[in-house]
């Protein structure tokens, strides 16, 4: 049987998703479980999103609009980017696959950060491409280092900003300096899945760079700040010619009808988005306070999660937290042994989590795990 499977697929690793609440309740016999593992939105989605889903139920038997016209029009109204330059998919996950299939030939290379979103790598391997990684000192993408790793074979560079799983982001000056040196034959994907959470003042509007940088692709999603992870809708911006190519590669009905209607409704509710941003900002300040009090080093985050060094065996800490009803993401699953990545949640859950963490750390043996160089 094994010979039937393409070598590229055999070489891939399966994506390990955060454990679902129902599984942890069942396995550990717990009644109260809080998931802080997958950077989901603890404030749910806007009530308008829910109304849109209910309203759309009457059309359940219809295929969705394959061109996501209404959603792309709403995104055009919001951003000023013409519709022809906007594309949407079943989560930005699906768009990473579409981009990989559109550009990568066997033997070509993608370039990404050492601790960045794993789907760039998986999809490159699927296409028979090679993956080149740049070290990430203190959890930050090292843009000048990335430039030195561009070769004749480099086809796509992925900049994840804010970066998952470290939470770090670069500013406008760094981005502009990088853009200047990316050769014309290279596609630059800026994945901004967490952009709505950014608080650093020198952040930039990536869409402003589209006209002068025809190989720039910007990816965003409704899964995080808009709280629509289950509906699976991500979107992107690129030159018209590239969008036309993506449309050939995409499955025809990639964004379901509920997702399209809900995403339009989500864009209309700016108050909800502001509420999420404000609560996340408060939660982040609380995380920093607690981590400082516990003397645990962390990467300053521009996202809705914080990566920190437990100084212990992260899998042990993870298991002990699970038994207390808190699901987090162990660094060992992300190539960062010793670390935990924890989603910023409601204040009640944040407090509960730190109380559980204190108890766990008191009982855990300290261990010299990897440090971020
Ligand atoms: C950096 C990054 N990009 C893309 C995605 C995919 O998001 P979605 O497929 O839900 O839009 C995620 C999800 O965690 C992510 O962290």
TrEMBL record:
Known partners and oligomeric status: Homodimer.
GO molecular function: histidinol-phosphate transaminase activity; pyridoxal phosphate binding
Stated name of the protein: Histidinol-phosphate aminotransferase
Cofactor entry: pyridoxal 5'-phosphate
Residues in Aminotransferase class I/classII large domain copies: 32-352
GN (gene name): hisC
GO term, biological process aspect, one: L-histidine biosynthetic process
E.C. no: 2.6.1.9
């Amino acid at each position: 049987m094994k010979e039937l499977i393409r070598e590229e697929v055999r070489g891939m690793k399966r994506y390990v998703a955060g454990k679902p609440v129902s599984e942890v309740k069942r396995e550990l016999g717990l009644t109260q479980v809080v998931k802080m593992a997958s950077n989901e939105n603890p404030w749910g989605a806007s009530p308008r999103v829910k109304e849109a889903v209910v309203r759309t139920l009457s059309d359940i038997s219809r295929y969705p609009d394959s061109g996501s016209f209404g959603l792309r029009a709403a995104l055009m109204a919001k951003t000023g980017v013409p519709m022809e330059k906007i594309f949407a998919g079943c989560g930005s996950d699906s768009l990473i696959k579409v981009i990989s299939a559109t550009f990568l030939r066997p033997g070509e290379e993608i370039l990404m950060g050492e601790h960045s979103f794993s789907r760039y790598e998986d999809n490159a391997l699927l296409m028979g491409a090679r993956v080149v990684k740049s070290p990430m000192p203190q959890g930050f993408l090292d843009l000048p280092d990335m430039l030195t790793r561009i070769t004749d074979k480099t086809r796509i560079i992925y900049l994840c900003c804010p970066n998952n799983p470290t939470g770090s982001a670069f500013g406008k000056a760094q981005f502009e300096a990088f853009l200047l040196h990316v050769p014309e034959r290279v596609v630059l994907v800026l994945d901004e899945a967490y952009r709505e959470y950014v608080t650093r003042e020198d952040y930039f509007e990536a869409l402003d760079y589209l006209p002068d940088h025809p190989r720039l692709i910007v990816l965003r999603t409704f899964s995080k700040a808009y709280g629509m992870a289950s509906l699976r809708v991500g979107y992107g911006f690129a030159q018209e010619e590239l969008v036309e190519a993506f449309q050939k590669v995409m499955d025809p009905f990639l964004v379901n009808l509920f997702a399209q209607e809900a995403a339009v409704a989500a864009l209309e509710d700016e108050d909800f988005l502001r509420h999420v941003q404000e609560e996340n900002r408060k939660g982040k300040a609380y995380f920093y306070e607690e981590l400082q009090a516990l003397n645990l080093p962390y990467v300053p985050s521009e996202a809705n999660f914080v990566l920190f060094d437990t100084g212990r065996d992260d899998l042990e800490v993870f298991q002990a937290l699970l038994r207390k009803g808190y699901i987090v993401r162990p660094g060992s699953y992300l190539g960062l042994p010793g670390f935990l990545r924890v989603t910023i949640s409601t204040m009640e859950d944040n407090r509960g989590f730190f109380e559980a963490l204190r108890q766990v750390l008191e009982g855990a043996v300290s261990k010299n795990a990897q440090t971020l160089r």
